[in-house]
Amino acid sequence: MEQKDKGLALSRRAFLKTGGAACAMFLVAGSLPQLARPAFAAQKEESINEVLRRQFGGRQVSPSHVNIKAPIIAENGAVVPITIVSDLPMRSDDYVKKINVYAEGNAEPYVAGIDLTPANGKAEFALRIKMRKTSNVRVVLETSRGKLYGAARSVKVTIGGCGG
Q: Are 131 and 153 in contact (CB under 8 A)?
């Protein structure tokens, strides 16, 4: 077979070499954040008390009105199912404004924040979180009146979810 336009035509060998080089560059570029990770790991981990103090100041968290449903043992720390239920009212003048979820053993304990309105009808939420190691899952609810309610539950992690 004779090729008529040699300017745009690539041989199979040239195509494979170019494609292979492009794939290698994408792989190297994709691994750069992983190579930089040890620099971030050197940062000081925040304790749960520091995080709570930063978010809520000196306000007291009352240990009531919050029920955390979580497994006693999580087979995989990458997907730990958590359900949060509260019996607090969801009226227009008094409702759960925010649900904050923390995994105390993670490098960054704050996992999620869920905003609610009275239209939600009930302060209940289910999610899957990532846990690095065995620790407490802590939930703090903030009401529209500024009151804080919380609970904690211990979850044993058999396989770490954050690279462990």
A: no
